Every structure is written in C-alpha cells, then in structure tokens.
Amino acid sequence: MATFTAPTFPNPGDTVSLTGPSAETLTLMAQRRSTLAKDMGEPGPSAEQLDTLLKIGARTPDHGKLFPWRFIVFEGESRAVFGEKLEARFRDIEPDAPAERLELERTRFLRAPVVIAVISDTDEMHKVPEWEQILSAGAVCQNLLIASAAMGFGAQWLTEWYAFDNPMKSALGLQPGERVAGFIYVGTPQVPAQERPRKDPRVTHWAG
Question: Which residue segment(s) compose the domain that 177 sits in?
Fold first, then answer.
C-alpha cells in the first residue's frame, strides 16, 4: 500500500474553498463498491489512517450542529472479546444452534481488521427533527465508506441481528434512545469486488 499522507483539516473560522472539479473524486464515487467483510484481511488502517477516517466520517451535514452520533472502534483483541459475547447471547436465543453458526457469531468481528460502530444518538426534544438527526448518522456511515475507498481499503456497512438486540446493545454500552446506525468493516480486499446490478435512479422533474 502506498505511503499515507493525511489530508489537511480546516480549523474553526477558516475560509473553506474547494480546489475545483475533481475527476478522480467523481471516478471513485462512480466506481465505489462495498467489499464483503468475509473478503477482507490485513492490513487494516494504521492509527493515523483510522483517526483520519473518523474525522472525515464526522464531516457530515448536521442540522443544528448536534453531532447526533458517536463511534465505537473494535480492533485487535477487542474484536474477539466482543465475538465471545455474541456467541454467548446467540446460545441464549437459539440453544440448539449448530456449531457452525456459533463459530460464525464468535468470529463476526474477526472478518476485518477494524470495525467501526456508528451510534445514532438523537435528541427527540430538540427543534431539529429527529429524522434529520438519524439521516446525519447515515451520512457518517457513507463518508466512512468513501474515505476508506480513497485510502485503498475495502469497506462494508452492515447491521445484522445484534444491532437490534437489547442485551447486545447493553453490551455495547448504548444508552436509552441510542441505536446502531451501522457497523463499518474496514480492511484490505483479498479478492476483487464485483459490480452488482443497479437500477437507474427514479427521477421526476417537478413542474408545478
């Protein structure tokens, strides 16, 4: 992998001006494709790359400047520790689950070197509609996918059953009202990603 050069982030109050059209950026977005978590491997993002990913993820439209989301990062041994909790919880849900399924649960977070949980943390009482706050968390997930691709990594946005399971949400340390917007798996693709069929956008032009 090429040497990583971190981008320059503006400081509060700085004048931010785009550098002009970027064919490279448009090509990246036109060809961006999720890499399946099972098709990822080492290396993952370095500490500097991960810090950059999270900062870029946070540069999302955010009505009211509420920052209605936060990150939980899994890397190294923490992925296996969380996998043990997944397996134990799944044993409670399906006591007769076959060994293969239990192994799947135990190794879910080992599929990629880094897993970033994006947690939606909305304020229902704020004047900014909750729906807009939720959408902001979704935009964070997409930013992480695009930034990962720009760094040369593969990434996939998943939720899966444990994102909606109350005991597992407690294991993650989620507070009342918090929800998992997505688990972003990031690693090096081991096989080329294949483009999938896509429908044309549904578009109408309003004319009154």
Answer: 33-75+110-189
Residue reference for tokens 């964070």: 140
Question: Residue 1: which pLDDT band, with cuts at 50, 70 and 90?
Answer: low
Does 97 map to a domain? no
> Is the dihedral angle over the CA atoms 155, 156, 159, 161 positive or is it negative?
negative
DSSP string, 46-59: -HHHHHHHHHHHT-
User: What tokens does 192 get?
Assistant: 């080329």
pTM assigned to the model = 0.94
Number of structural domains found in the chain? 1
Size (the chain), residues: 208
CATH of the domain at 115: 3.40.109.10
Nearest alpha-carbon partner for 167 in 83, 79, 92? 92
